[in-house]
Design a protein that fits this description.
- With 122 residues, this protein is mainly β.
- The chain has no helices and eleven strands.
- Strands 2, 4, 5, 6, 9, 10 and 11 form a seven-stranded mixed sheet that branches. Strands 1-3-8-7 form a four-stranded antiparallel sheet, with no helix packed on it.
- Strand 4 and strand 5 form a beta hairpin.
- The radius of gyration is 13 Å and the shape is globular.
- The termini are far apart.
């Protein structure tokens, strides 16, 4: 069965960095897109970034552009989100997802991880 497992969340000071991991099981990332989404209390789900395993196309939300970097590791069947210069507004539960389509629309993604909490503060 298809499964995605996120890790790497935690507490970090403003201006710090975290790297989130998303390990895929039951299927390979070949021919899939990997997306990262986040949701904070009282806010709508936000598409953060996505990447196509087919052609390497990437997307970044304006709020994270130039701070976050999305990547894939075919050998490890995993995706990553490097988050730099973190701000309090980045505090949220972060989810990775996979779909055969390259899209940032959350409701189109087929497979989802359980989420990992990122808290930016002192």
């Amino acid at each position: 069965q298809a499964q995605l497992v996120e890790s790497g969340g935690g507490l970090v000071q403003p201006g710090g960095s975290l790297k989130l991991s998303c390990v895929l099981s039951g299927f390979t990332l070949e021919n899939y897109a990997i997306g990262w989404f986040r949701q904070a209390p009282g806010k709508e789900r936000e598409g953060v970034s996505c990447i196509s395993a087919n052609d390497g196309s990437t997307y970044y939300a304006d709020s994270v552009k130039d701070r976050f970097i999305i990547s894939l590791d075919n050998a490890k069947n995993a995706g990553y989100l490097q988050m730099n210069n973190l701000e309090a507004e980045d505090t949220a539960t972060y989810y990775c997802a996979a779909d055969a389509r390259y899209t940032i629309e959350a409701n189109l993604y087929e497979y989802w991880g359980q989420g990992t909490q990122v808290t930016v503060g002192q």
